[in-house]
Amino acid sequence: MITLKSQREIDAMDESGTILANMHIALRDFIKPGITSWDIEEFAHKFILDNDAIPEQIGFEGYEYATCISINDEICHGFPRKEVLKNGDLIKVDTVINLKGALSDSCWSYVVGESNPEKDHLMEVTLKAMYKGIEQAKVGNRIGDIGHAIQSYVESENLSVVREFLGHGVGPTLHESPDVPSYGQPGKGLRLKEGMVITVEPMVNTGSWKSKMDDNGWTARTKDGGLSCQFEHTLVITKDGPRILTSQNDQ
User: Fold this and answer.
1) Does pLDDT of 116 surpass 80?
2) 168 labelled as ligand-binding?
3) Does 42 count as an annotated binding residue?
4) Which residues are CB-contacts of 24 (< 8 A; sequence separation ≥ 6)?
5) At residue 206, does pLDDT exceed 80?
6) For residue 219, what are the CA distances in angstroms to 63, 71, 98, 159?
7) Which of 29, 39, 61, 94 has the largest CB neighbor count within 10 A?
8) What's the pLDDT at 249?
9) Is residue 148 annotated as involved in ligand binding?
10) pLDDT computed for residue 71 by the predictor
C-alpha cells in the first residue's frame, strides 16, 4: 500500500532528513586513511543519538548495525568492520534515521584520501544520475520516467546501472511501496501523485551491472570486481515539483 503523506508528516520527515544530511556533511572531514569502517559506524551512531533520533536499520530483518558501509566493489549492505581503510578506497555510507516516528534515508559516497580519474568519473556520473532521476519525480509522471532518465544517462557515460536493488517508498516503515528502479521505460509504471515520499538511489558500476551475494546473506558486490558507487536522497513529490528532504545544503 502506498501512503500519501500529510504536510505535518512531510515537515517531520524534513526535520529527520536534516539530521541525516548533517551527519553526511560531518563525515566529509571524518573519513580519512587509517580509520576503519567501524569507526564510521560508531561516529554515525553517536551522531544520530546525540540528535535525539534512533538508527532505524538496527533490527531491520535482523540487521545489526546503524549503517551499511560498502567498500570498492561492494554495491550495498556492507557490514562495518575493523579493517583499516586505505588511501583511495571508495566507500558508500547508507543509513536510515527515525526522529520521533519520522524516517529519512540517504546514502553518500566518499573517497578515502586521494581519488583518481576513474573514481571521479564514476562518482560524478552517479551523483548527476540521481538528480536526473529526481527531476522526473513530479506529479503525473510515472516510475519509469525516473528510471529511464537515470539509465539513459549512465549508459551514455559507458557505465552500468545495478538492477537488483531499488529505490522505494519511505514511511511509516523503512521500505514501503512503490519500488523505484534506476532503469526503465518512459511513460511506464505507476503514476506519481502529490504526497508520495520515495528514495531515488542509483547504484552505478564501472563494469557489468550484475551482482553476487556474499556468504553473510547481506552484502552485494559486483560480479566482475568493478567499482560501484551510490548516492541516495529521500524526497517528496509536491505540486511544485520534487522536494528533497535529505539535502546537504550544497548537494
Assistant:
1) yes
2) yes
3) no
4) 93, 106, 108, 248
5) yes
6) 11, 10, 23, 21
7) 94
8) 84
9) no
10) 98
